[in-house]
Specification:
With about 80 residues, this protein is α+β, with helices and mostly antiparallel strands. The protein is about 40% helix and about 20% strand.
């Protein structure tokens, strides 16, 4: 029971959205109009949950990279 609660707390601390849109996982396609960066916060939370197995896997597949800016469009 304690592990389940710890897992929920760890997942609750993850960032899932930025002003530029939703975070994506390692298998998702990036939007070509946005610049993405690996989410350090999500990486730390996933690492803290290594003993539980579920949080790191969920973070990697759902919230690994977050959009940080719109790409400049060349005209």
């Amino acid at each position: 029971m304690k592990r389940l609660l710890l897992g929920l707390v760890l997942l609750g601390g993850c960032t899932s959205k930025t002003p530029y849109g939703e975070c994506i996982g390692i298998t998702d396609d990036e939007n070509p109009l946005l610049e993405y960066k690996v989410s350090t916060r999500n990486l730390i939370w996933g690492t803290l949950g290594m003993g539980l197995m579920v949080p790191p896997v969920l973070v990697a597949f759902t919230q690994f990279k977050c959009p940080v800016a719109a790409k400049a469009v060349a005209k």
